[in-house]
Specification:
- It is built from 38 helices and 43 strands.
- It is flat and about 180 Å long.
- The longest helix has 23 residues.
- By secondary structure, the protein is of the alpha+beta class.
- A hairpin with a 3-residue loop joins strand 35 and strand 36.
- The strands form eight sheets. Strands 34-35-37-38-39-40-41-42 form an eight-stranded mixed β-barrel, surrounded by four helices.
- 41% of the residues lie in helices and 29% in strands.
Length: 1047
């Protein structure tokens, strides 16, 4: 607080000494009566004349600090000492701020003289210090002794000098005394142990040294309080020495040792323990089990802590990863440490590395299990008996023999297992074994209700541990062997009596390989008589081809050196006349002990069977009709050629050849003619390919060709085209001439695929592309084909919707008389107006329609719409020409076709001659009888017929003459080439001549140029259609351009 001048008047009657001091001028400026008296002044004037030098040096040092704190509004309470004529006066003062009239900030003191307090608690405190057993002393900063209590006098006065630096003289080590004094002066205190000098010698004391103000002169002093702890320190030092010795001993132990307190904190560990867990003592001592070794071990302690608390010892084994030792098995013994009242204070923990022992134990158990497993799977019964004939081991076979569990046989006397009577018979043998002899005997015994022949072998056994003078008994059930031997003896006797009648060649050889018996069919099979063969070796009889002789010698060598008792083999042999035969040999050896007595050979002539197997193999890999390889052999050859080509970095081509419309040949001419055609095609192909190429028939009318490119990348295309052209030459079969074409797809290795599956699939795509392109062509696989296949499926689906939603329309292309320029007719051409693709050309969707049988539905729509359109035109126009429609081969196969067309004409009141049907040669050839019946029926009602695309199909002149047709339409491919290709010109001239001679109209398709027009007219071709005359037009445009309205 800050006091004003008016407020000072209140303190005149205060019981406390109050005064104002101008610190700057070192003068008291005001005081109340109590202050004048306490400060030993005669009056106020005398007090105000004193300067600040009357204060102690400590007070003068502190006063500016107090003044600054007062200026900041802080109140200060402190002890002051001032010096008067009567001596020092010590008082306790509260200092406040006071503002003088001139504005100077002074200090206001509110004080009580401290002598008032000595009458009570201070005197008591002095008495307590005087009589305390602790040693109290007070020193100046330079070490002069100011005061001490009685205990200090008794302990130190006899050795302590009272002049000089008494503080330093107190310590046995002067440097240590200086360090303690320095700590008190700088820090304010020191607490700790130190060695001090006493009459009893140098002793350990616990020191508490504080920096205080001397209450007499207010100077800084050192207060020291100490206690004698010499016995405690010496006890601790002895304990440390003992602990160090214990630590040293423990560190020498090879096992990890530790001590864990009851709170699971580590108190002690040896060096081995530190090494094991990879930590230092500082990282372990005082820390918990969980912190040091983890929660797993802490959980283990949870489990056994109750036992430790009861004073019980705990042992356990643990398998873990130790940083200092790796993965180890360790055995741990935990020993509780208890006090006299049996309270558990902690536990000693001893670890033992048992890893090697564990591994050895595990290995021993594994070995025992392995040996037990081996013996359990032996077809032998094995037992081990000790010197008392008690069973120590019995394998599974023995236990099964006697139908006993392990606990019912192990430890029992062997007589309880095999019976006392048998034991008595065998006991003498056991005694012989105990003398070191190995005993073998064959006995006939009753075992588990069955009579068995047993070979018993008894061997002495001593494992040097638990079994001494023991016996290993091995029982082998040779019942089947004995019975087989008896049976063999009977069979051999029987065999001997029947050898002469056996169907096999029976040959017996002596140990040197010479014939001693030549019976059975030996003479018949090999052509040598008994007299010629006996006494000679088989080499001398020349029974084997070269490789067979060496292999026979190897088999005899095996038999002779106990590498087997028999052999079977299939060899090519030679008869006496040199004819080769196939034979199966069954050889065996007859021994006299370990020595070979003779060899017995049974030989069967299997030539007929081998021939049948070869035939079956041929059939499995060849096409029976053509003699070519089949699909199986082709795929095997293709895989092999791909591997070779890949290894040599060469190229291959695979071609799929599919005969166009071959099913129509079968249907029209019969399957026998179709088979003959296939044979002729196969012959032509086989004669055309190279020696390194390979061809197979893989389906009804499919052939596959593997072409080795032989460094010429163009060879695949050339050969495929060559084969296609081979088919253009007519085939003469069944007294008639036939034509056939092929659609060929080609895929290349490694360009298109690197395995046989993909290559074959790619040829399929390419072949179907050739079909779509109009057949009779070669197409190579490309990535777009794989893309087009889904498009083809999509197109078929969209075709169904197009029929449903009437997306089809007809365009009409006129036919013109080239000489009179009169329109003689028109061809109705189907168009598909797709909602997104626009106008789809017929060559894209007609093949799909034919394959999916949609063509019948489309064809019916075309007939109906054409008839409707003709009827509509006839009502408006005077010169409506004959309209032609196209019929596919699929439509012609329907017997109802002709009647349906006639019904549609009748429906619209149209005459038959209003309509013409156009059919291709191929369509007619597919079923010429049915085609003739349909065309005859239509012709009878005035409907005319024309052969479309003439020159490209199968038809023969004989068939052409018999067909009820009215016109031939020359294929546009020939018309386009008449000016530039002499062959095309000759074909067109021949067709025109043929038609004229047969009295048929001839119509040229594809007329596009004046030069073509001039050629046709010069060769007396009267009619034509094509772009030079007009493109196909919608019905309205056609009528507007070519039809004349009725008047």
């Amino acid at each position: 607080m800050i006091l004003t001048e008016a407020e000072l008047c209140r303190y005149n009657d205060s019981p406390h000494a109050c005064w104002v001091q101008d610190v700057t001028r070192a003068r008291v400026t005001w005081a109340n009566p109590v202050a004048v008296k306490m400060l030993r002044a005669a009056n106020l004037e005398e007090l105000c004349s004193r300067d600040v030098s009357a204060l102690s040096q400590a007070a003068r040092t502190r006063l500016p600090n107090y003044l600054q704190r007062v200026a900041n509004g802080e109140d200060v309470t402190t002890q002051w000492t001032t010096f008067t004529m009567d001596g020092p006066v010590t008082f306790l003062a509260d200092i406040h701020g006071y503002r003088a009239p001139d504005g100077t900030l002074c200090a206001f003191f509110d004080a009580r003289e401290m002598v008032d307090f000595l009458c009570a608690e201070s005197l008591r405190m002095l008495a307590a210090a005087r009589h305390s057993m602790a040693f109290f002393s007070l020193y100046t900063l330079d070490g002069r002794l100011l005061e001490r209590n009685a205990s200090f006098v008794r302990e130190f006065d006899a050795v302590l000098r009272h002049d000089g630096d008494c503080f330093l003289a107190l310590f046995a080590d002067a440097d240590e005394g200086n360090r303690i004094r320095s700590a008190v002066i700088t820090v304010g205190e020191f607490r700790g142990r130190s060695r001090v000098v006493t009459p009893k010698g140098v002793r350990w004391h616990m020191l508490f040294a504080l920096s205080i103000l001397d209450p007499v002169d207010a100077e800084r002093a050192i207060h020291v309080e100490s206690f004698d702890i010499n016995e405690q320190v010496e006890t601790e030092m002895r304990a440390k020495d003992s602990e160090a010795l214990l630590q040293q001993i423990a560190d020498e132990l090879p096992h990890p040792v530790s001590y864990v307190n009851a709170d699971r904190s580590f108190r002690f560990v040896n060096k081995t323990y530190c090494n094991w867990i990879g930590k230092t003592r500082d990282q372990i001592i005082g820390r918990s089990v969980q912190d040091v070794v983890g929660p797993v071990l802490d959980k283990i302690w949870d489990d056994f802590t109750p036992k430790l608390m009861r004073g019980e010892r705990v042992s356990y084994e643990r398998h873990a990863q130790y940083p200092g030792r790796g993965e180890r098995w360790i055995q741990v013994d935990v020993v509780p440490h208890t006090d006299e009242q049996n309270n558990t204070l902690g536990a000693f923990v001893f670890g033992y590395d048992v890893h090697t022992l564990k591994l050895a134990e595990s290995s021993r158990k594994a070995t025992e299990r392995q040996l037990e497993q081996i013996t359990d799977n032996l077809p032998l019964a094995v037992s081990v008996q000790d010197e008392d004939f008690r069973v120590r081991f019995a394998n599974l076979t023995l236990r099964n023999w006697f139908n006993l569990r392990p606990d019912r046989i192990i430890g029992r006397h062997i007589a309880e297992v095999i019976g006392m009577e048998v034991f008595d018979e065998l006991r003498p043998l056991g005694e012989r074994v105990r003398k070191g002899e190995v005993v073998q005997v064959r006995r006939r015994e009753e075992v588990a209700g069955r009579t068995r022949w047993i070979d018993l072998t008894m061997v002495p056994f001593d494992d040097g541990d638990t079994i001494r003078n023991g016996v290993i008994s091995v029982f082998v059930d040779v019942t089947k062997r004995v019975e087989a031997s008896e049976t063999l003896h009977r069979v051999r006797n029987t065999l001997t009596s029947h050898l002469a009648n056996t169907p096999l060649a029976v040959i017996q050889l002596d140990a040197e390989g010479r014939v001693t018996q030549w019976t059975g069919h030996a003479a018949e099979v090999f052509g040598w008589s008994d007299a010629e063969a006996v006494g000679r070796s088989l080499d001398e009889l020349h029974l084997f081809e070269e490789d067979g002789r060496a292999r026979f010698a190897q088999e005899l060598h095996r038999l002779n050196h106990h590498l087997g008792d028999r052999f079977t083999a299939a060899w090519r042999n030679l008869r006496k006349d040199g004819v080769s035969l196939h034979a199966d040999w069954f050889g065996s050896v007859l021994r006299d002990g370990a020595k070979v007595d003779s060899y017995l050979m049974l030989v069967q002539d299997v030539s007929a069977r081998v021939s049948a197997e070869l035939h079956l193999h041929y059939v499995a890999n060849h096409d029976v009709l053509t003699g070519l390889a089949n699909r199986t052999q082709f795929q095997e050859r293709l895989r092999a050629e791909i591997a070779r080509a890949r290894r040599l970095g060469q190229s291959l081509a695979v071609a799929l050849l599919d005969l166009d419309r071959f099913k129509y040949v079968n249907e029209s001419l019969g399957h026998s003619t179709g088979d003959m055609l296939l044979q002729e095609v196969a012959l032509r192909f086989s004669q055309a390919i190279g020696p390194n190429d390979f061809i197979a028939r893989t389906g009804g009318d499919e052939f596959m060709l593997l072409i080795n490119m032989e460094g010429d990348d163009a060879r695949g295309e050339q050969l495929a085209e060559q084969l296609r052209r081979l088919l253009l030459r007519p085939f003469r079969l069944a007294e008639q001439e036939m034509f056939v074409t092929a659609s060929i797809g080609v895929s290349l290795f490694p360009h298109d695929a690197d395995n046989e599956v993909e290559l074959i699939k790619n040829t399929d795509w390419a072949m179907y592309r050739a079909k779509d392109a109009g057949r009779n062509s070669v197409q190579f696989y490309s990535a777009t084909l794989a893309h087009d296949a889904p498009m083809r499926l999509s197109l078929e689906s969209e075709l169904h919707r197009a029929v449903e939603f009437s997306q089809f329309e007809l365009h009409y292309q006129p036919k013109q008389n080239l000489f009179t320029k009169r329109i003689t007719g028109a061809e109705a051409l189907l168009r598909w107006r797709h909602p997104t693709r626009g106008l789809v050309p017929p060559d894209e969707f007609i093949p799909v329609a034919e394959e999916s049988d949609l063509i019948n539905e489309l064809g019916a729509w075309v007939v109906a719409d054409v008839c409707r359109q003709i009827a509509a035109w006839r009502e408006r126009f005077a010169n409506v020409p004959q309209i032609a429609i196209n019929l596919s081969a699929v439509q012609l196969k329907r017997r109802e076709l002709a009647q349906e067309i006639l019904d549609e004409l009748k429906k619209h009141n149209l005459p038959g001659n209003a309509l013409m049907v156009e059919v291709t040669e191929t369509a007619v050839v597919s079923d010429p009888l049915l085609a003739t019946v349909s065309l005859d029926m239509l012709r009878d009602h005035g409907v005319r017929a024309a052969i479309d695309d003439f020159g490209k199909g199968y038809s023969s002149l004989t068939q052409l003459k018999r067909l009820p047709i009215d016109a031939l339409k020359i294929d546009g491919s020939f018309v386009r080439g008449v000016v530039v290709d002499r062959d095309d010109a000759a074909i067109v001239q021949a067709i025109i001549g043929l038609a004229n001679n047969l009295g048929l109209r001839v119509i040229a398709e594809g007329l596009e140029t004046p030069e073509q027009l001039a050629f046709l007219m010069s060769n007396q071709c009267e009619e034509a259609q094509g772009y030079l005359i007009s493109r196909p037009l919608p019905a309205e445009d056609f009528a507007r351009q070519f039809l004349m309205p009725t008047t």
